[in-house]
Structure formats: structure tokens, C-alpha cells
Amino acid sequence: MTPKLEEFKTAMSAVRERIATAKRRGTHCGFIDYHGCISVCNELIAILEDAGKAAVRGDCEYAYSVAVLILVNCAKLAGSADDSAGGITNTRGYVEEVLKKACSCVEHGSAEGEFIFLQSLKDSRNKVFDGWDEFAYDLLLATAGLATVKNVNKLYAVLDEFDAKLSRKEYSSWHLESDRLVRLAAITAIDGEQAAEKFVADNIQYDAIRRIAICNSLDKSDFHCAERLCRDKINSTDRDYYWTQEWYDMLFEVYSKSGDKERQAELAEDLLIGKHDTKYYTILKQLLFEKGLWKTEYPSLLAKLAQNLPYNMYMGILSEEDETRRLLEQLIIYPSEVFTYGKQLSTDFPAETYVLCLDEIRRQAAEADNRIKYKKVCGNIKKLFDYGGNNEVSRIIEELKAKYLRRPAMIEELDGLAIRLAKKSL
Asked: What is the per-residue pLDDT across 387-408, written as a single tens digit (0 to 9) for each?
């Protein structure tokens, strides 16, 4: 089905009508609000799913055209609708998948492939993408692999045009990474892997390119190069772990794929204790188990965690290891966490747990000044009941009712709770 056929035009008209209908239904008081935007995006995704099936059937030009039409409408929505739910970003992901299918299902250098490639150059310059230039780069990145020696310079001309436009904006450089990714896709398609590797090496300062370089090194089992690429990035910044976590994770992957368990364990412990990344606790535990060192290393590791981790993270690990006595010691210091671990602790230390719960309930009740907070107090009393503290529950309800006679809403909530718990006790 080619663009010149009547069948193609009819199918595209049907898609446009589906989009228009979705927008009408999602418009309330002249505006596509939160719920309306979700509804519209759901319909756009349904259209893209149909387009993806068309690409698999071989209707690649049609699938491409539908994907671009949806991308254009995403840009329009981005500037005029309430997308707090993130529906537009989600829809762009589906657009990317359909474009990939459409481009991968056509033969490189074919008439179909050339149509999609050249059309994408035109479509990417649509004025609707002004201010949403990342959408245009999405489109070019998907189709760059269809470039040929004959037409690739047209792509480079468009990229140069984008660069000139965006570089005029003060402090604007975000687009350079997208530019390099598009060029890399074109170079790979035309000049081959060796030229692509050189381009990657020359543009390693861009994070997306560095990720590709690391993956390439791992594919070749060049673990030394992959490690250097990760560590160079980590060492090049003094920003906190939030900004470097990705590169530490990739470094750990390098050690995993190289089979270096010593360095895996060393890095896992460093990230756990030094960076407070608790996902590495389970990883470190498994590595020590494999080496037969868990039982001997566990006590010292626990001591390090107690000294270095924030208390809530440390308590989470104690809970995971069922270290109830140590957990109780922490709760005595940080009683506000008692309802997080009360059920687990009440099995071994019921009396101590009940005392901590009652103290926390009293503290919360003293600070409560509205019905939402009264309900929270009652919710914690209900937890105490679930822990087995039936007698304590009866006493604390009567104590609070007597103490806060001038809080009728609290007394109402407490009375309602007492009735519900009485029925559960029968």
C-alpha cells in the first residue's frame, strides 16, 4: 500500500478521524484536561498498535505515515493538554517502536526505504516540532539507518540546520547528543562498523555515545576498555551518587561479565556502605555465599552497616535477616518506625513491641488535630490489635477518650474502631 493508492489515502483518513474523535471526547470546557489526555493517548496507542501490525504485514510506508501523524499530534498535545500522567511520553515510546518496525521491514536502498527516509527529512522540519525539537530527533534517529551514499548529505544538511537553530538559544547544547546519535546511525548504515567505531571514539564525551562504546567493548570482551570508560566518567564529576549511579551499575556489569568475583564483591561493598545503595546487599551476600565466606563475614559486615547506613536502611536489612533483637534495639532509639516492623517483632518480643506501639500512639494522638490524623491514630491502634495486643488496645482507646474529651471527632473515630474490633474478636 503506497501513498499514491486510494486505499492508502482512505486508511489515513480513517486514522485522522479516530484522532479527531479522541480529541473531541477528551476535550472538556475547551481544554484537554488530565483525564482527557489519558483518554486521547490511549486511543493514539491503540492506533499505533494497529500500525505496528501493518508494518509486519509489509505496509511499511503506511505504518511510517501513521507513526509520524501520531508524533505530530503528540507535539500538539504537549503544548496544549494536561499531561501530568505522562501519557505523551508513553505514546512517543510506541511511536519509536512502530518507526523501528517500519524501517527494519524495508530493504535498505529500496524505493520504499528511500521514500521513508526522504519523507522523514521533510516531516522532521514540521513547524509543530518547534519547541519540541526532541520529537524531530526521535524521527530522524529511527530513519537514519535507511540513508544511502546518494542521499545522506540531505540528512546532514537537516541536522546542520537544526544545530544552527538550536545553538542560537543561550546555553542550548542538549541537542548535540541527539545529533551525534543520528549521525552514528547513518554512518553505520553507509560506511560500516569500523567507521562507526571511530565516530564513537571521537564523540565519547556524550553519555549516549559512551554507553554504546561500553556495550561494544563488552561484546568484544574488551573488559579493560569497558572498565576505563566507566571509571573515566565516574572520576570526571564530583556530583553525588544520583548522577553517577548508572556508571557504577555498568562498571559492576563489566566485572560480572568478566567473571571477576573479587572485584564484584569489592565494588558491591563499596556501593552498599559508601553510597548507601542497598540493592547491592543481596548481591554482596550471594557473592560471599559463593565464596563460602558469608558466615564469617556477616558479623563484621553488619557492624559496618550499623555505623554507616542511615537507620531506616539498616533496619530494613535487619528485618530482611530476621535480626529481631537488633531491630528492637533500633526501634527503642527510633520508635516512629515501630509500625513498620511491629508485626515481625511482636512474635519474639510482644511485651516490648506493645509498649513501643502505645508510646507512639500517644505521641501521635497528642499531635492530631483533624480527622485525617485521628484516622491514622486509629489505624495504628488497629495494627496493635493485629499484633495481638488486645488488652492494650482496649486500654488505650479508653485512655484517649478520657484524655481528649474536647475532640469529638477523635472520640467518634475511636468509638467506631472499638465497635469494629469487638466484632472481629467474636
From this structure: 999 999 999 999 999 999 999 9
For residues 169 and 200, the model is more confident at: 200
Q: What is the pLDDT of residues 1-37, one digit of tens each?
A: 777 788 899 999 999 999 999 999 999 988 999 999 9
**Residues 6 or more apart whose Cβ sits within 8 Å of residue 187:** 195, 196, 199
Segment 301-360, tens digit of pLDDT: 999 999 999 999 999 999 999 999 999 999 999 999 999 999 999 999 999 999 999 999
Helix axes 261-274, 241-258, angle to 10 degrees: 160
Output the CA angle 165-169-171, nearest 5 degrees. 130
What does the DSSP 8-state code read for residue 27?
Answer: E
Full-model pTM: 0.85
Instruction: Enumerate the H helices of 144-174 as residue ranges.
Output: 152-167
- Segments in 27-132 forming alpha helices (H): 34-57, 60-78, 87-104, 111-124
Residues in a beta bridge with 28: 31
Q: What are phi and psi of 20, to 5 degrees?
A: -65, -40
User: What residues contact residue 318 under an 8 Å CB cut-off, 6+ apart?
Assistant: 326, 327, 330
- 260-270 pLDDT, tens digit per residue, is 999 999 999 99
The residue type found at 57 is R
- The span from the CA of 109 to the CA of 173, in Å, is 33
C-alpha cell at 31: 481544554
The total number of residues shown for the chain amounts to: 426
What is the residue-wise DSSP string for 105-126? TS-TTSHHHHHHHHHHHHHHT-
Q: How does residue 148 score in pLDDT terms, banded at 50, 70 and 90?
A: very high
**Cβ atoms 119, 64 nearer than 8 A:** yes
Q: How far apart are CA 101 and CA 64, in angstroms?
A: 9
* Residue 252 to residues 269, 301, 395, Cα–Cα distance (Å): 11, 20, 54
Q: Which of 276, 321, 320, 274 is nearest to 299 (CA)?
A: 321
Q: Kindly provide the b/e burial profile for residues 228-244, where b requires at least 16 CB atoms within 10 angstroms of the residue's own CB.
A: ebbeebbeeeeeeeeeb
